[in-house]
Write a structure and sequence with these properties.
The chain is of the alpha+beta class. It contains twelve helices and 29 strands.
């Protein structure tokens, strides 16, 4: 009996040990497999670029920061992306369209923008008929109207004094030497001395010291080139005169649309000043060269201006009817575009399988009745929201994403944000100083109202900006601050580069200065800098800028209000 009991005990003990060995190891293997599987499934992301998802640890391919494990359930969306439910999309009647080169079927027209210019063919120079010193100038202001034959100046001319003496002497021997008499008379006539003036000299036999000069052209003075007391030579220009009986309407056409236009094509001109008037004309000139900055070509039509309706500088629109077979550039429906006042934005569906959207800034070109041509911002084949855009924007706001409303609010008051000073390497400060040097060149160009120099210095600014090594920022908050500022700075400098109008450059200069000032305050450039402010800039909303000198030289107005502004802060 004892033997059986012993066998039973041994059997039970063996079963228990076997369970411990094999069952426990199986559980351990399962746990190990689970941990191994968990490690294999771990994805690594960047705190600044959540769209980066990699199966292994390493550096962010965009900014160089160390990757961190993605949180469980992370959807991999970028900070600008957000999801909407299918139910919300259906209730809001949100519709999307694939971007393509489709044209408005109901309107095959192209709308151009431009302005009225003086007709160079009807512009003339009023020159001096003879040399001398201007004693009296009767037209001194731009915009004065000069009629042919009007008295324009009184001039003391030593040559004329000599010629008058010669005429008086030749008159005495006229009978004996008629050829000499006629030669002296013709000399005076070549100087446009009138017959009446010559007869007065012969009758009175007195030399006139100051001779009157009369206009031989008519029109509005565009530029006065001399002042009283100036010495002029025969043929020296006195005024630049424009005859405004005809004017030019210059309109800009983007290069993608040039193929649709030709000389002789009908164009309808409308004026912002007189929206109820429409003037039919024909394209008589297409510029053979393209503007490298704006990627546009100028087309021109000549307008009759006998009623003096058109003023040089007036903004106009031109509508050209296209052939049925004509196609414009990449285009999007006008319903897709939202305007922030400074920028135009659309919402792009960034996933083909899920309702994921993101805001995208676009640069627009010419327009038809229902479409905008797109210069940059979206590509052919992308899907954009064309109906319910404001609902999508509201969803972005509710989820704390970048949207039309909070973007604009942020742009208006970035200077009110408190800027923390970071402790960064001297190498980073040196690179930022190189960007600052080009910023000063840009500011000085705007002070001088030189849009060409502003474009050139903006390109230098952009180039130096690409050389700033953000991996030198070891502190994450400093890195995040620079990334946010860099995004806004790039947008602003791109806006300056891609326009050729001084007014638009100054509008983009305001947000550029605001965000770049924050960067200089946050990181330093080892130099004393003055933050200055003009309350009248940007339609009295105010604008900041940086300067190396305390003296105010306003980049928003130039010579018009050069001294307008105050020093708000000294950045050391």
């Amino acid at each position: 009996m004892k033997t059986y009991i012993t066998y039973i005990v041994i059997l039970i003990a063996g079963l228990f040990i076997g369970w411990l060995v094999f069952g426990g190891s199986n559980n351990t293997a399962k746990m190990s497999d689970h941990e191994h599987s968990s490690n294999e499934n771990t994805m690594w992301t960047c705190s600044m670029h959540p769209q980066i998802m990699q199966p292994e640890a390493g550096d962010c391919p965009i900014c160089g920061m160390d990757l961190i494990p993605a949180e469980a359930g992370a959807d991999g969306l970028s900070p600008d992306q957000f999801k909407m439910t299918e139910n919300a999309i259906a209730l809001a009647n949100i519709e999307t369209t694939i971007v393509g080169t489709s044209h408005d079927e109901n309107s095959n027209s192209l709308t151009l923008s431009g302005k009225i210019m003086t007709n160079d063919n009807a512009t003339a120079l009023q020159t001096a008929h003879f040399g001398g010193r201007i004693e009296k100038l009767f037209f001194k202001s731009k915009g004065d109207y000069v009629e042919n034959g009007a008295l324009i100046a009184s001039i003391y001319s030593p040559e004329l004094v000599t010629a008058q003496n010669e005429l008086i002497e030749a008159l005495e021997i006229k009978e004996a030497q008629p050829e000499l008499y006629e030669a002296v008379r013709k000399k005076l006539q070549f100087w446009k001395i009138s017959e009446k003036q010559i007869q007065d000299i012969e009758r009175n036999k007195k030399v006139i010291s100051n001779f009157n000069m009369y206009a031989n052209t008519n029109g509005y003075i565009e530029e006065v080139l001399v002042q009283e007391g100036h010495h002029v030579k025969e043929g020296s220009p006195l005024f630049k005169v424009a005859n405004l009986k005809t004017v030019w309407a210059n309109l800009d056409v983007y290069e993608n649309d040039i193929k649709n236009l030709k000389t002789g094509q009908l164009i309808t001109i409308t004026l912002n000043a007189y929206p109820d008037k429409q003037i039919e004309s024909k394209i008589d000139y297409i510029d053979p060269t393209i503007n490298k900055n704006t990627r546009t070509v100028t087309v021109r039509t000549t307008l009759n201006n006998k009623e003096n309706l058109f003023k040089p500088g007036m903004l106009i629109n031109g509508i050209v009817n296209l052939d049925a077979t004509s196609h414009t550039a990449l285009s999007i429906p006008k319903s897709a575009v939202m305007w922030t006042g400074k920028r135009s934005i659309v919402y792009v569906k960034s996933s083909k399988t899920e309702p994921v959207f993101e805001m995208r800034e676009v640069q627009l070109g010419n327009a038809t009745s229902a479409y905008y041509n797109v210069i940059s911002g979206i590509e052919n084949g992308e899907e954009i929201v064309t109906n319910g855009t404001f609902t999508v924007d509201a969803a972005a706001q509710l989820q704390g994403k970048r949207s039309m409303m909070n973007q604009e609010e942020k742009e208006q008051n970035p200077e009110e944000e408190k800027v923390t000073r970071f402790n960064v390497s001297s190498n980073f400060q040196t690179q930022l100083k190189a960007v600052f040097d080009n910023y000063i060149l840009l500011k000085n160009a705007l002070v001088q109202s030189d849009n060409t120099a502003a474009t050139s210095s903006s390109k230098s600014f952009e180039k130096s900006l690409t050389k700033v090594d953000m991996t030198l920022l070891k502190e994450q908050k400093a890195h995040e601050f620079w990334m946010e500022a860099l995004k806004e700075i790039k947008l602003s400098i791109s806006g300056i580069i891609n326009t050729n109008t001084l007014e638009t450059q100054r509008k983009h200069f305001k947000p550029l200065s605001q965000h770049f000032t924050n960067a200089v305050m946050a990181f330093g450039i080892n130099q004393t800098v003055y933050s200055q402010f003009c309350p009248m800039a940007d339609n009295d909303t105010g604008g900041y800028w940086l300067s190396l000198e305390e003296e105010i030289r306003n980049p928003y107005f130039g010579d018009a209000m050069l001294k307008c502004g105050t020093v708000e802060e000294t950045i050391k």
